[in-house]
Amino acid sequence: MHDRLLSPYHPGGSRMHRMPAGLKAGGAAALVVAVVLLPRDAWAGYAACAAFLALVAALARIPGRVLARRILLLEPFVLGVAALSLAQQGGGRVFLAMLAKSTLCLCTMVLLSGTTRFSDLLRVLWRLRVPALLVTSLALMYRYLSVLMDEAARMTRARRSRTFSAGRGLAWRGSATVAAQLFVRSSERAERVYAAMCARGWRT
Amino acid sequence: MHIPDGFLDAHTAVAAGLLSAAGLGVALRRVRRVLPARRIPLIGLAAAFVFAAQMLNFPVAGGTSGHLIGAVLAAVLLGASASVLVMSSVIILQCFLFADGGLTALGANLFNMALVAPVVGYGVYRFVRRLAGGGLRSTLLATGFAAWCSTVAAAVACAGELAASGTVVWRVAFPAMAGVHIIIGLGEALITVLVVAAVARARPELLHEPAPSDGWRRYASVAAYGLLLALGLVVFVAPVASPWPDGLLRVAERLGFAPRAVGPLVRAPFAHYAVPGLGAGARSTALAGAVGAVVAFALAWVAARLLTPRGARRAAEKAVPGA
After folding, report:
1. Rg (CA), chain A
2. Do A179 and B190 touch (CB under 8 A)?
3. Who among A85, A100, A189 is closest to B45 (CB)?
4. pLDDT number for residue B321
5. ipTM of this predicted complex?
6. Number of domains in chain A
7. The domain containing residue A172 runs over which residues?
8. Cβ separation of B31 and A134 shorter than 8 Å?
């Protein structure tokens, strides 16, 4: 479950996968900006973007099932914000237009992360002169995300197998203790990571 | 609270992007100056920790569950500037890897959750802790109240951005966002207090203690954050929340070209500014906010009292001669 959630990258050797990451990221950003800047009633424009995205998905040979699952996972958040606009005068059209816009942008970003490794995207950020401290932090975060999630899952399982009460208060204190322990462990891990980085000749 | 693409107009998106880039710059400078080199990997690992901790479930009622946001938790554990970097890493990764939060809304999301939330939270934390007089109990009290304040502040900033973009009118956005987050903030406060208390029990030396003051530099960073937050307030919240027509409109009226030149552009928002001004919705939301603040403070106080270990108190009493 964690694996599927944590790796949106869909391995493959298609033309879209082999394209340089900078080009893909730039193209995705341009498409997103274009969709956002389209006037609210430009349904022809939306349709054109959707057709283009469908073409990209076909070229990337990512199964529709995989794409649909990721998009449906995120659509509730979009709906939640869009629903706010329903409560005002003439909100129905605003609602539909925004739903279309954000779904198109969502598809674009899902396709980008499906065809591009996150480490390649980080290299693009590095080349764009994003400060080193931020890129290093992002890279370390990405590297240790699954490690810490697994650690949290292990600790949660261990706690569940030892506490049999269904009390809510106990559940809160238990989860909080797991979170605290997770922080202690990540802080200790950070020290080991630093030692390893120094051993490999890392400099600030 | 992640704003997707397509909900912000160009002005708001660009303004929020500039503000959060400036805030990130201040945080990077500050962290590079203050953080010892051996703690640098901790920023990345703490970001992974916040992300993993957000996945832990806290059952609420009827099968629903809440989760941590983590800005104040990171600020209490690592300090304000490091927390800005940690939350920024979380939000950038969520945007690029999981498409959670839009690319064009990245600046706004960073501003709300990686600048407003940690900076407001840390400010409240330091203020309340100083008033309450130090010690574990006042740390926990300050943590809880700060967590509530930071959640509500981020929600208000989000509502302001949506309203400034003309997507959702302020009368709808403000009560909806603030109202929901007044409640969510209570959960955030309780979770944050519980986690900080557990860290304090296991490894008290891991709680962040501000470095001895390095003179004007520290005040410079405080001033920079304050300036950025004030600018955000002016750009996003003030124009939409003000019950008076703004200066430009008044000038236009006085010069007499309002009906023709500005008419069609202005009529829609003007209807909402009409005599009731901030409608009943906004006023009762403000009232709910005041009640929420009192409840959050009481909750934090009770939690801090319950969670301070007895042993620590007795030891402190013993340490005072004659007590």
Report:
1. 21
2. no
3. A189
4. 46
5. 0.90
6. 2
7. 131-199
8. no
Domain boundary among A98, A125, A152: A125
A66 lies in the same domain as A141? no
Q: Are B177 and B48 in contact (CB under 8 A)?
A: no
Domain end call among A74, A107, A125: A125
**φ, ψ for residue B100 (rounded to 5)?**
-95, 110
Residues making up chain B, counted from first to last: 323
**Nearest CA of chain A to the CA of B104: how many Å?**
7
Provide CB contacts within 8 A for B19, sequence distance 6+: B107, B111, B115, B228, B231, B232, B235
Q: Which residues contact B86 (CB under 8 A, 6 or more apart)?
A: A137, B43, B46, B47, B50, B74, B78
Statement: residue B19 has pLDDT above 80:
yes
Structure tokens at B240: 């939409």
Is A130 touching B (CB cutoff 8 A)? no
Q: At what angle do helices A132-160 and B10-34 cross, to 10 degrees?
A: 90
The pair of three-digit structure tokens given for residue A155, joined into one six-digit string: 């600790």
**How much is the pLDDT for A192?**
93
Mean pLDDT, chain B, rounded, equals 81
pTM of the model: 0.86
- Same domain flag for A78 and A153: no
Do A109 and A162 fall into the same domain? Answer: no
pLDDT, tens digit (0-9, with 9 covering 90-100), for A133-163 = 999 999 999 999 989 999 999 998 998 888 7
The C-alpha of A44 sits at a distance from chain B's nearest C-alpha, in angstroms, of 17
| Contacts A–B by Cβ distance under 8 A | 232
- pLDDT computed for residue B134 by the predictor: 75
Instruction: Collect all residues of chain B within an 8 Å Cβ-Cβ radius of residue A70.
Output: 99
Smallest CA–CA distance, residue A119 to chain B, in Å, is 11
